[in-house]
């Protein structure tokens, strides 16, 4: 069985993330979405909220499971018997950082390879931090995130949307 992991903080999950999830799910038998618990960041959503939002957003993809993790990604991959890490690339600046991570992960655990998927053109500009900023000012984010995420963000920022 081919098992892949698509890791991230997903704070919030965007349509760009979902594009990568849909496409990566076709490459493996099981795709684990690894929701990182990073003690160095102050996320808008708790880890459990991010897991629940991802479960809602991916409920139509049968081979996708959502799991929270902390620590080294390669350790999580080994625990789950995953041989592939999936990463999305928006621009050349992403590639430099992601290549360094991929090479480091491969050095730590040579059984785990990283596969890069380029983001679809319509999402190449999109980032979670941009969505958070727009939402914090009451801007419309429905075109950037699934409906369940938009609603949850408006609630977090105490905004009412029609």
UniProtKB/TrEMBL annotation:
Query: What InterPro entries does the record tag this protein with?
Result: Cyt_trans-like, PPAT, Rossmann-like_a/b/a_fold
* Keyword set, alphabetical order: ATP-binding, Coenzyme A biosynthesis, Cytoplasm, Magnesium, Nucleotide-binding, Nucleotidyltransferase, Transferase
Q: Which cofactor does it need?
A: Mg(2+)
Superkingdom in the source lineage: Bacteria
Annotated pathway: Cofactor biosynthesis; coenzyme A biosynthesis; CoA from (R)-pantothenate: step 4/5
Native source organism of the sequence: Anaerocolumna cellulosilytica
Query: What CDD domains does the record point to?
Result: PPAT
Q: What NCBIfam families does UniProt report for this protein, alphabetically?
A: coaD_prev_kdtB, cyt_tran_rel
What GO terms describe the biological role, i.e. biological process, of this protein? coenzyme A biosynthetic process
Family, per entry: Belongs to the bacterial CoaD family.
UniProt: substrate binding residues: 9, 41, 73, 87
Site keyed Transition state stabilizer: positions? 17
- Tell me if Ion transport is a UniProt keyword of this record: no
Alphabetical list of SUPFAM superfamilies matching this protein = Nucleotidylyl transferase
Top enzyme category? transferase
A molecular function (GO) term: ATP binding
- What is the role of the protein in this entry? Reversibly transfers an adenylyl group from ATP to 4'-phosphopantetheine, yielding dephospho-CoA (dPCoA) and pyrophosphate.
Known catalysed reaction(s)? Answer: (R)-4'-phosphopantetheine + ATP + H(+) = 3'-dephospho-CoA + diphosphate
Q: Any idea of its EC number?
A: 2.7.7.3
Q: Which residues bind ATP?
A: 9-10, 17, 88-90, 98, 123-129
Q: Which GO terms describe its cellular component?
A: cytoplasm
- Protein's cellular compartments: Cytoplasm
Could you tell me what this protein is called?
Phosphopantetheine adenylyltransferase
Its assembly, as annotated, is: Homohexamer.
């Amino acid at each position: 069985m081919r098992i892949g992991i698509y890791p991230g903080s997903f704070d919030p999950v965007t349509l760009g993330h979902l594009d990568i999830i849909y496409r990566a799910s076709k490459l493996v038998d099981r795709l684990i979405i690894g929701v990182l618990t990073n003690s160095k960041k102050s996320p808008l959503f708790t880890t459990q909220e991010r897991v629940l939002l991802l479960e809602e957003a991916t409920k139509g993809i049968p081979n996708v499971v959502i799991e929270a993790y902390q620590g080294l990604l390669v350790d999580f991959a080994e625990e789950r018997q995953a041989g592939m890490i999936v990463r999305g690339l928006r621009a050349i600046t992403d590639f430099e950082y992601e290549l360094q991570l991929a090479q480091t992960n491969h050095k730590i655990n040579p059984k785990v390879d990283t596969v890069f998927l380029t983001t679809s053109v319509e999402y190449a500009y999109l980032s979670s931090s941009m969505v958070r900023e727009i939402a914090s000012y009451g801007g419309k984010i429905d075109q950037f995130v699934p409906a369940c995420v938009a609603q949850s963000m408006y609630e977090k920022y105490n905004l009412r949307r029609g």
